[in-house]
Amino acid sequence: MIEGMYLGLEIFFIGLLILATLSIGYVSVVVLFNLFRGQR
């Protein structure tokens, strides 16, 4: 019973971690793109 609960929490936290990493990467790419576009 307890192991199943921990597995769900683990999947939940891994999903959160992946979401955070993707959003940070997306924001940094957009910022870099805007910087390069603004220089021309």
Walk me through the structure.
Helices cover 95% and strands 0% of the residues. The longest helix is centred in the middle third of the chain and has 38 residues, at 2-39. It is an all-alpha fold. The model has no long low-confidence stretch (mean pLDDT 91). It has one helix and no strands. The protein is rod-shaped, with a radius of gyration of 17 Å.
Top keywords for this entry?
rod-shaped; 95% helix; 0% strand; mainly alpha; 40 residues
Concise account of the structure shown:
By secondary structure, this protein is mainly alpha-helical. The protein is 95% helix and 0% strand.
SSE arrangement:
Blueprint: H1 2-39
| Estimated radius of gyration | 17 Å
Tally of strands = 0
Give the overall average pLDDT.
91
Q: Which runs of at least 5 residues are low in confidence (pLDDT < 50)?
A: none
Order of helices and strands: H
Cα separation of the termini: 60 Å
Number of helices in the DSSP assignment = 1
